[in-house]
Amino acid sequence: MPDKSDAPTGFRGARVLALESRRARELAQLIANNGGHAVVAPATREIPAHDHGDALKFASSLRDGSLDVVIFLTGVGARALAQAAETVCSRQEFVEALGRTTVIARGPKPVAVLREWGVPIAATVPEPNTWRELLRLLDERSSEFPISGRSVTIQEYGVPSP
Predict the structure, then answer these.
(1) How far apart are CA 43 and CA 77, in angstroms?
(2) What percent of the chain shows pLDDT beyond 70?
(3) Domain ranges in the chain?
(4) 29-42 pLDDT, tens per residue?
């Protein structure tokens, strides 16, 4: 039986590259806690959009009650949308309007944001939280969340991937 003391433990002082941007500090600490020296070099960065036209149209439609279902795909996008909407309505108005709408969240990050705001979530897309599971959820629960002939908005964040 091999001696457990021969098993590798942690990073043993190795330099470890972390490409994370949003949780860089936490990831660097995790690497350090496991004996590594973190080199943090974010692979991407978030640049806020300057044109909030679609977000403002969304906020107005949400506020006036013309949206039936809102699907949130990302937590960062949900926060950016709420921030952009604050130019035409207060955060409280935004959250109250969401509360009058069927809200579906794609995964844990938008769920966390919506819970922070106190927005009721009608459904959460099961793991691995891709568009396939979203469509399956909508199909399987179509009597609960009918979308045919209804106004459905999907919050997207960033540039679509081809």
Answers:
(1) 19
(2) 88
(3) 12-45, 53-155
(4) 999 999 999 999 88
